[in-house]
């Protein structure tokens, strides 16, 4: 087996969480290379499988990244597969999941072709509480800020933030900030080959307006958790619905014979304590192997099976 783990130039040796993966795959008989996704010298077709990992610089160049994924998928097997990358790399997928009945954090979508004025933006922001502005294409919480609706200065900064993103031809998402993030945190549920693996809690990261970040992502505070059945069932519903939508988009042809190699379902609690979807990460998410007993081995096994051309059926 020859396996490439795709990363970005800022992390040429992978994110620390992924570094043990290479050794785990080598222990299963694979030859493993870590390769920067936009390095023109890489011969992707020489690999039996390319696994996307820490390609965290793709957001400003999404079109280039999607074209790269398409090209790799035409030469060898890519995980997650190209249709997933194209769909999941733009957060408009949340609108599709919402329309399909998945409980999603309520979102106002501001499109650049509307040419909204500052006053028009003001009328579209929430009237009370805190809210979040983020672009529809982003990674690592970059270009994301938290604002207070009843504070004139904060609201003005929110308008500037939105106008900057729209001026760069980027769709803007406006979401009410759910206060459970400050107490229960964001709760990420990781699936490997369609089966639930483990869960972690991410502490609140947004405490003010969008600011420049040194690096490719905002630092996170992580802890392992034991998720309750309600959260896990909502997470399962999200993954199943995503697969159904992708299959329907492909005219009934599954995106691949296996379930998604990996999926991370980020949930928060609404005002009534119910889990709702914040994001579904299937492009290049951290999978937090160190926070789930046996998670690294489960993932390495799933990768090895795909590299050998086998199929892993989901039981979830």
Automatic annotation (TrEMBL):
InterPro entries according to UniProt: DcsG_Biosynth_Enzyme (IPR053191)
Protein name as catalogued: ATP-grasp domain-containing protein
């Amino acid at each position: 087996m020859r396996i490439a783990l795709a990363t970005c130039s800022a992390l040429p040796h992978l994110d620390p969480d992924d570094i043990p993966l290479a050794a785990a795959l080598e222990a299963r008989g694979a030859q493993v290379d870590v390769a920067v996704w936009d390095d023109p010298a890489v011969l992707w077709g020489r690999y039996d499988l390319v696994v996307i990992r820490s390609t965290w610089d793709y957001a400003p160049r999404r079109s280039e990244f999607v074209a790269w994924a398409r090209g790799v998928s035409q030469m060898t097997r890519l995980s997650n597969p190209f249709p997933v990358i194209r769909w999941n790399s733009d957060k408009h997928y949340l609108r599709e999941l919402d329309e399909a009945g998945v409980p999603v954090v309520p979102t106002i979508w501001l499109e650049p072709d509307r040419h909204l004025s500052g006053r028009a933006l003001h009328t579209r922001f929430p009237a009370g509480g805190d809210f979040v502005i983020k672009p529809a294409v982003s990674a690592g919480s970059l270009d994301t800020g938290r604002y207070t609706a009843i504070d004139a200065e904060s609201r003005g900064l929110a308008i500037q933030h939105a106008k900057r993103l729209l001026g760069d031809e980027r769709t803007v998402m406006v979401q009410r900030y759910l206060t459970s993030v400050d107490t229960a945190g964001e709760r990420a549920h990781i699936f490997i080959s369609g089966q639930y693996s483990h869960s972690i809690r991410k502490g609140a990261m947004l405490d003010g307006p969008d600011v420049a970040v040194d690096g490719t992502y905002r630092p996170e505070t992580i802890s392992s958790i034991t998720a309750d059945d309600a959260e896990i069932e909502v997470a399962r519903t999200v993954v199943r619905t995503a697969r159904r939508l992708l299959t329907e988009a492909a005219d009934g042809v599954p995106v691949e014979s296996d379930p998604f190699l990996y999926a991370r379902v980020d949930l928060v609690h609404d005002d009534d304590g119910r889990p709702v979807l914040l994001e579904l990460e299937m492009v290049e998410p951290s999978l937090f192997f160190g926070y789930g007993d046996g998670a690294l081995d489960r993932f390495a096994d799933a990768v090895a099976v795909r590299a050998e051309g086998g199929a892993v059926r989901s039981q979830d």
